[in-house]
Amino acid sequence: MTEEITFAVLGAGHGGQALAGYLALKGFKVNLFNRNPDRIESVKLMGGIQVEGEVQGFVSLNLVTSQIEEAISDVQVIMVVVPATGHRFLAEAMAPFLKDGQIIVLNPGRTGGALEVRQIFKARGVQAKVIVAEAQTFLFASRVTGPAQTKIFRIKNSIPVAAIPAYQTVEVVQSLRRALPQFVPEDNVLKTSFNNIGAIFHPTLTILNAARIENTHGEFDYYIDGITPSTALILEAVDQERVKVAEALGVRAITAREWLYSAYDASGRNLYEAIQNNPGYRGIRAPSTIFHRYITEDVPMSLIPIASFGKMLKVPTPTMDALIHLACILHQKDYWLEGRTVERLGVQGMSVKEIRELVVVEKEEETKEK
Q1: Which residue of the set 298, 325, 331, 334 is catalytic?
Q2: Same domain for 206 and 315?
Q3: What is the pLDDT of residues 73-99, one digit of tens each?
Q4: Within 13 Å of residue 224, how many CA atoms lie on the same side as its CB?
Q5: Taking the model in full, what pTM does it have?
């Protein structure tokens, strides 16, 4: 365990640049990948990334590339930091080049991310013995502030992570915590998936603030101004549906308010107060358009899998269903056609016991190997 760990960060958006810069500032070897070379051109020209905020400094990276093979070659940990709609593309792209012992972490997995990647690797016939894991949330509240510049507004206190199957989680955490001590083991990927708080905040706030976003082009603080006592009531209704679907799977999901307490040290008697008392949200602006990943990602990759599990388990999700319906109207598309349904996650028709066995010990695979 004395060997220095090496990282590939896949994705050079708000999260990817922040994570790559943060890891490099801590002295780790980091490769940064983005499939669109234009996104990383400024990092190449500047010779690195300027990090501001919670940590500061200019840092160079080991490699900046749009070639997936060279990005993940000879690294121990592959940190996937793209919207969940990009997980499938990256899983298919990296599949031919994976090597034994590599750890792939989705930051975050949203809902069903590790299940989806596992299904893709199986379909692609990946023989390398890799570990697939997902984080419950992203480590930072961060934004790209200029060419090769990123600002980390807040580093969260703890980031639950789980591997599929769950017995590999310890190995993942041991590797990650050498660089990122905020990562802590979670029970399994059902818990990380159903503790996906972005599923609650992002689509709900964007849909409820659609007129304000279109009128101001996002010129307001997304969380502080966008959440009023009334919108907080709707957030809490969506949140309770998520908790009930998780409960049907035998998972005790934390509420959004509990998450704010643990991730940010926020305090308050209700969700509205906890949000307003969270300094980490101050200064984070709203999206400039409703055609944003808060809908394009979080509806198909967060709300739909929760609602789909709810339908299979006969747990009503009326508020969530209404938000999905509104998103489809706003974007004039059927998000159910591309979302992570139970069919696409490979669990349709499975009992709760079978689903839990799959994510904990993956018995069906062990039986085949024997």
Answers
A1: 298
A2: yes
A3: 999 999 999 999 999 999 999 999 999
A4: 13
A5: 0.86
Number of Cβ atoms within 10 Å of the Cβ of 32: 31
DSSP codes joined into one string, 67-97: -HHHHHTT-SEEEE-S-GGGHHHHHHHHGGG
Boundary of a domain, candidates 149, 164, 194: 194
pLDDT digits (tens, 9 = 90+) for 293-310: 999 999 999 999 999 999
Residue 300 DSSP label? I
298 is an active site residue: yes
- Residue 362 counted as domain residue: no
331 given a catalytic annotation: no
Q: 300: which 2 tokens?
A: 């198909």
* Omega cis (within 30) before 108: yes
Q: Are 309 and 299 in contact (CB under 8 A)?
A: no
Residues 284 and 222 sit within 8 Å (Cβ to Cβ): yes
One-letter amino acid for residue 348 of the chain: Q
- Which are the contacts of 211, defined by CB distance < 8 A and separation ≥ 6? none
Number of structural domains the chain divides into = 2
Cα gap 213→224, rounded to integer Å = 14
b/e code 171-195 from CB counts within 10 Å (16+ = b):
ebbebbebbbebbebbbbbbbbbbb
Can you tell me whether residue 152 is helix, strand or coil? strand
CATH number for the domain that contains residue 50: 3.40.50.720
Using left for φ > 0, alpha for ψ between -120 and 50, and beta otherwise, residue 180 falls in beta
Domain residues for 136?
6-194
CATH number of the domain enclosing 236: 1.10.1040.10
Distance of CA 28 to the CA centre of its chain: 22
- Choose, from 14, 87, 202, 292, the residue flagged as catalytic: 202
**What is the C-alpha to C-alpha distance for residues 211 and 236, in angstroms, rounded to an integer?**
21
- Separation CA 241–CA 111 (nearest Å): 14
